Amino acid sequence: MTFIDKLIAQIDLVQPIVNLMLDNSSIFFDEYKQRINPRLIVVGFSKHRYSRKDEKNQIKARQEFDKFYNNFELLLDKATPNNLKKIDKAKTNIINLIEQTKVPVNIESGKNNFLKYTKVFKEFLELLQDEETATMIIPDTNSIIQYPDPISYKNIANSSEFDFVILPTVLSELDKLKISHRNEDFRKKVKSVIKRLKGYRKQGDVLKGVTVNKTVTLKMIATEPNFEKTLNWLDPNNNDDRIIANALELQINKPSNNLIFVSSDMNFQNKAQLANLTIFDTDDLNS
């Protein structure tokens, strides 16, 4: 699944929770308010009231919606002013519906309103779909030490053609490990990986990409991630988070691309999953 596909799946997960929340709620028409002044019209005022609310599913729905929106809003730099206006209005309406601060005419109307509001997000995501897509394989440091040959990753891509991307934090960690690791054999292995990577530099511009084995494009990223435009739980002082932020930037830049993050570290995998990145376990490369 692409980043866009995952976002659509995320917002779809909210719908059954909202439906259940509404099914467990009750709405009534306040006839007393209607009788005391039937001609008075106040903008934003509703004569419908909740007689029962489902606070348990309110909390669940808001949590799932926030998970979706935290990832979705990373794409908003691509939005036009008109897009932003529609999205902001839809977000406000969804939150009001989930928190049950605004009352629909009836339960079915509330369900239909949710579908209408989420359609705004989906229509924006459709605008970002690109017919020309690529597969990007991004290994963490341990993965590239264990499997330094980009061809080793072709089964992950389900194709012989893919981009193999080395991030700056991975390069920095390799440089430190070749000197500081306590095991001499491991240091030698790291040095051999670095030597291989330097060999690619001699083939051409690794920032633009060099061809490996005729079909794989190896690229190195020089720029560090911008933590002002990423998920707020990522820590710039944590190398794992820096790698995820860098990978996420590449994904946001091309949301239709199939980006696959390769790591055997469970904590790393959990963070990558939370960031909506596709994960492949290094341990499964030989299976």
Distinctive features:
287 residues; alpha/beta; Rossmann fold; 6-stranded mixed β-sheet; two-stranded antiparallel sheet; 12% strand; elongated
Short characterization:
This protein is α/β, with parallel strands linked by helices.
Q: How would you name the CATH homologous superfamily of the largest domain?
A: 5'-nuclease
Strand neighbour order, sheet with most strands: 5-6-4-3-7-8
- Enumerate the spans where pLDDT stays under 50 for 5 or more consecutive residues: 40-45
| CATH architectural group of the largest domain | 3-Layer(aba) Sandwich
Structural class computed from helices and strand pairing = alpha/beta
Strand content: 5-15%
What does this structure look like?
With 287 residues, the chain is of the alpha/beta class. It folds into two domains: 3-127; 135-284, Rossmann fold, CATH 3.40.50.1010. Helices cover 52% and strands 12% of the residues. The protein has helices at 3-23, 31-36, 55-72, 81-99, 107-127, 141-146, 154-157, 168-180, 184-201, 239-253, 266-274, and strands at 26-29, 48-52, 135-139, 162-166, 210-212, 216-220, 258-262, 278-280. The strands form two sheets. Strands 5-6-4-3-7-8 form a six-stranded mixed beta sheet. A hairpin with a 3-residue loop joins strand 5 and strand 6. Helix 1 (3-23) runs antiparallel to helix 3 and helix 4 packs antiparallel against helix 5 (107-127). Residues 40-45 have low confidence and may be disordered.
SSE layout and pairings?
Elements: H1 3-23, E1 26-29, H2 31-36, E2 48-52, H3 55-72, H4 81-99, H5 107-127, E3 135-139, H6 141-146, H7 154-157, E4 162-166, H8 168-180, H9 184-201, E5 210-212, E6 216-220, H10 239-253, E7 258-262, H11 266-274, E8 278-280
Parallel strand pairs: 3-4, 3-7, 4-6, 7-8
Antiparallel strand pairs: 1-2, 5-6
